[in-house]
């Protein structure tokens, strides 16, 4: 068994066996633990789960979206990425301009009512088409506010200035690798209450250079272990690979520190199915020889090599 995936699978077992039954913002309910850590040696392979298929292209396009400083789902939809649709869709169906079917509590109702699910899918397809074809509509309903990309690349200060945290950190790694200040934070207390579709779950990350290797530690305040965390692991592992490549370093570890780590009650069967599977060897990442800067990254600059996995496992998103 691969050590990297084993860390994730063992945490799933621990949350199921020891987790507290807790209510949550979505009304779904969770098995929850507070405080956990997984370590992934990036020299051993790229930590994309193999016990269920995880779409690497979605991870890469979302990361590019963050790095660009973009906060509008139009970019994601142009790349076939539907990860953030529900939060933008919720804003639209709660607006006074929406005149379609009642979409209240759509995340839960679509799982319990096939007729409602069919109406939801029709409304979502219409919404996505409007986002792609109508820039004014996209600007109004496709933007998610001051989420990750905004905080990473365009943090606004009380003096009206902006800070490009990610660019500053890359330059610091290049010129002052021993610094203990290679930090990017997405948690902006001023924006959290009113200006974000979803307050950042992966709240802060820090880079560390030793033995010519770049490591990264992420603090994630809220961790959806089945749906979200596999994406987070791969996304920050990929970011570490890319910045290490730009800075002329090898990759070290990705350390994933979690606050409230939880499995939603309606994901338990899916997790148990995943735990019954035997992992495959981990894949690797190939970076295009022409790649020079993370800020010029395109989807074609990275390639996932030798990825073998079990089939995907579907589960509802709690919105």
From TrEMBL:
Give UniProt keywords alphabetically: Cytoplasm, Methyltransferase, Nucleotide biosynthesis, Transferase
Q: Which InterPro entries match?
A: Thymidate_synth/dCMP_Mease, Thymidate_synth/dCMP_Mease_dom, Thymidate_synth/dCMP_Mease_sf, Thymidylate_synthase, Thymidylate_synthase_AS
What one GO molecular function would you report for this record? thymidylate synthase activity
- PROSITE patterns referenced in this protein's UniProt entry, alphabetically: THYMIDYLATE_SYNTHASE
Family the entry assigns: Belongs to the thymidylate synthase family. Bacterial-type ThyA subfamily.
Q: What is this protein called?
A: Thymidylate synthase
Q: How does it assemble?
A: Homodimer.
Broad EC category: transferase
Active site positions: 201, 201 (nucleophile)
User: What the protein does?
Assistant: Catalyzes the reductive methylation of 2'-deoxyuridine-5'-monophosphate (dUMP) to 2'-deoxythymidine-5'-monophosphate (dTMP) while utilizing 5,10-methylenetetrahydrofolate (mTHF) as the methyl donor and reductant in the reaction, yielding dihydrofolate (DHF) as a by-product. This enzymatic reaction provides an intracellular de novo source of dTMP, an essential precursor for DNA biosynthesis.
Q: Name one GO cellular component term.
A: cytosol
Enzyme Commission number(s) from the entry = 2.1.1.45
Q: In which pathway does it act?
A: Pyrimidine metabolism; dTTP biosynthesis
What biological process terms from GO does the record include? dTMP biosynthetic process; dTTP biosynthetic process; methylation
NAD listed as a keyword: no
Where's the Thymidylate synthase/dCMP hydroxymethylase domain? 7-319
Q: Cellular location of this protein?
A: Cytoplasm
Q: Where along the chain is dUMP bound?
A: 25, 180-181, 221-224, 232, 262-264
The record's catalysed reaction(s) read: dUMP + (6R)-5,10-methylene-5,6,7,8-tetrahydrofolate = 7,8-dihydrofolate + dTMP
Q: Residues that bind (6R)-5,10-methylene-5,6,7,8-tetrahydrofolate, according to the entry?
A: 55, 224, 318
